[in-house]
Specification:
Structural class: mainly alpha
Helix content: over 70%
Radius of gyration: 18 Å
Mean pLDDT: 87
Strand content: under 5%
Low-confidence stretches: none
Number of strands: 0
Number of helices: 14
């Protein structure tokens, strides 16, 4: 009975966490500051809570492990920066779905760095996911959806979303290597600290406005920091650690689903039948890759 209850809690945590993460591209679109500045505040406002969590978390990281966690945060900051930029150049659905190609790149990194064998199933699934990527970009360009003012800008946004998945794959490789040796609170604090530095640097480089103009602007940033970064990432870390990898992959689809639904309701970014087919191919490919690697 307890095992069933524990599994149910893990499923609920993963679903709710993914739904919270799905709010982040919407917040970037409606934020009063630029996308990189928005990401900086997402991290910075979460740090006090994460610092307290890190103090209570056991086991604490050693010096060398802290260095790796800071490096993981740099990769995470690069991923979020690329994704945040993608959201303002292409549709929310495209940016989010393309950034969720992470398992494809994780499989490629495993082959390159650790000589992991790529089975026929994994290679076929990667091909399916990449076909879905091409369809998704073609469907957006054909329908003229999203904030892009030209075909080139839309393709640039799609490329940014695609590239974001590479950074997140590297982040996950470090986190999974240390996840059982370091407490979740400490892991999230050190990674978030260096991610905040990356986002602040990107914001300064792009000369973005850093401080919001109104209480509403601050409320959006506080929601990102507390609901998305602390709540969403924390619930996902809890749920995914207690579920089979293939099951957690399916549950985390809640993130692009929530993002796509909200972007359709708020920004009129509807998914055409061709875009839905592309999304289905991406999600199918990702699922097969994860299941085969598990």
């Amino acid at each position: 009975m307890q095992g069933g209850q524990g599994r149910a809690k893990a499923v609920l945590a993963a679903l709710l966490g993914a739904a919270f993460i799905g709010l982040s591209p919407i917040a970037i679109r409606i934020s009063e500051v630029g996308p990189e500045a928005t990401n900086f505040w997402r991290f910075a406002l979460a740090l006090p809570v994460l610092a307290l969590w890190a103090l209570l978390a056991r086991p604490s990281p050693r010096l060398g492990q802290t260095g790796w966690l800071l490096f993981a945060g740099v990769l995470f900051g690069v991923e979020v920066s690329l994704w945040g930029a993608a959201v303002v150049h292409t549709t929310v659905a495209n940016a989010t779905l393309l950034a969720n190609l992470t398992p494809v790149f994780a499989a490629a990194f495993g082959w390159l760095l650790f000589r992991e064998r790529l089975s026929a199933a994994i290679l076929g699934a990667i091909g399916v996911a990449l076909c879905g990527t091409a369809l998704l970009g073609f469907a957006r360009a054909s329908a003229g959806e999203g904030p892009a003012h030209s075909l080139q800008e839309g393709l640039f946004g799609d490329a940014l979303g695609f590239s974001a998945a590479i950074g997140y794959a590297g982040y996950l490789m470090v986190v999974r290597a240390l996840g059982k040796q370091v407490g979740v609170g400490a892991l999230m604090f050190w990674a978030t600290l260096s991610a905040a530095g990356v986002a602040l640097g990107a914001s300064a480089l792009l000369h973005e406005q850093l401080v919001p103009r109104s209480p509403r602007g601050w409320a959006i940033l506080a929601g990102l920091g507390l609901v998305v970064q602390v709540g969403g990432q924390g619930l996902i870390a809890y749920g995914v650690a207690r579920l089979p990898i293939a099951a957690s992959t399916v549950l985390l689809w809640m993130q692009p689903l929530v993002a796509a639904l909200l972007s359709w309701m708020m920004f009129k970014e509807a998914l055409t039948p061709l875009a839905l087919l592309g999304a289905a191919l991406i999600l199918t490919g990702v699922f097969v890759v994860q299941r085969a690697r598990a």
